[in-house]
Structure formats: C-alpha cells, structure tokens
Amino acid sequence: MDIPKKIKLVGLGVVVLTTLNSCKEGGRSEILHFARTIKSNSCKIYEIQWGTESHWIATLHEVENLLPCDIPIKERETLLSLKNASMLRKVDSYDRLGDDIHGKIDAMEVYDAIMADSIRILNFQNQELKMEMEKLLGDIRSKDALEKVRTKVHSIQSRECI
Questions:
Q1: What per-residue confidence (pLDDT) applies to 26?
Q2: Rounded distance, CA 117 to CA 102, Å?
Q3: Residue closest to 125 by CA, chosen among 29, 24, 44
Q4: Per-domain boundaries in the chain
Q5: What's the rounded Cα separation, in Å, for the pair 11 and 125?
Q6: Which helix (H) or strand (E) segment is 18 a member of?
Q7: How far apart are CA 158 and CA 160, in angstroms?
C-alpha cells in the first residue's frame, strides 16, 4: 500500500475512533485527544511539505545536469527556479529539452499532486477535529475549567514537531 493511501486510511480511522470514543469519554480527555491528533496531523503536513521541497530541489539538480548547453541563461535560470511542472512547461525551450528531462518533470508532477492531496486530506481532518473540539469546549460550563483546558490545548499545539 502506498503512503497516500495509508495516510487516508489512518486519518479515516482517527476520525472514526475519535467519534466513537466521544460517546464513552468525558469532554476534557476528548478535547486533549483532538488537540494531539491535530498537532500530529500538522506535523505530518510539515513533513510532507519539507519532503516535497527537497524532492523538487533534487529533481531540478538532475535537470540542471541534463540541460543542453545552448539553452539561454535566462531560460536556464527560470527552468531551475520553478517548482511547478505546469509552469516549467511554459518556458519557451521546454519542448526541446528531451525525454529524460520531461520524464523527471512528469514524475515530479505526479509526486507533487499526491503529496498535495495528502495535505488536503490532513487539513480537512484537522478542520473536522477543530469543529468537534470547539463543540466540546462550548459544553464546559466552568470558566476556570475552560481556561485550564484551553491552556493545555495551547500547550499541545505549541509543541515542536519531532
């Protein structure tokens, strides 16, 4: 099973389990569980973004080594600075770059799209969890208890990703 399918299945499982657990547990532990899951998803998003950026850098380095010598300097700079397959294809000299370069850019476009889809799924899950968390926070009647829970949620969300 590939990574995006795993992310989708894990995310779906998290949403289902947290929904089922909400029937059994009190609001505070549920809220903190949502906060941890949101933080975990946010860290996965950062990881995916960083990995995609690194992959683009490596791909463009490979492209640089394959570029024909007669590509004008300005176009060469443009080709090596863009991290978007659609934009790369708009560069005047793209059509004459050859199958090796086209293949690398095409493969990067597919990878980029899959990673963008994974990020959208994680962002959607975070939105759903935030709505559920806010609903549970609204059920807390004690001002002091609400403040303590919000402080704990803030603490969880402020942690650095590992």
A1: 57
A2: 23
A3: 44
A4: 3-158
A5: 7
A6: helix 3-22
A7: 6
The type of residue at 3 is: I
Q: Provide, for the chain, the percentages of residues in helix, strand and coil under a 3-state DSSP scheme, each rounded to the nearest 5.
A: 85, 0, 15
- Residue pair 39/129 in contact (Cβ under 8 Å)? The answer is no
pTM: 0.77
Which tens digits make up the pLDDT trace of 64-82? Answer: 999 999 999 999 999 999 9
Longest dimension (CA), the chain: 72
Extract the tokens encoding 143. Answer: 């001002």
In contact, 41 and 126? CB cutoff 8 Å:
yes
Burial string for 78-104 (b: 16+ CB within 10 Å, else e) reads: bbeebbebeebeebeeeeebeeebbeb
Question: Tokens 């059509």 appear where?
Answer: 95
Predicted confidence at residue 90, as pLDDT, reads 94
Residue with tokens 């990673």: 115
CB atoms within 10 A of CB 160: 7
Amino acid at 104: K
Residue 4 in contact with residue 117, Cβ under 8 Å? yes
Residue type, 90: K
**One-letter amino acid identity for 88?**
L
Angle between helices 73-81 and 27-66 (to 10 degrees): 160
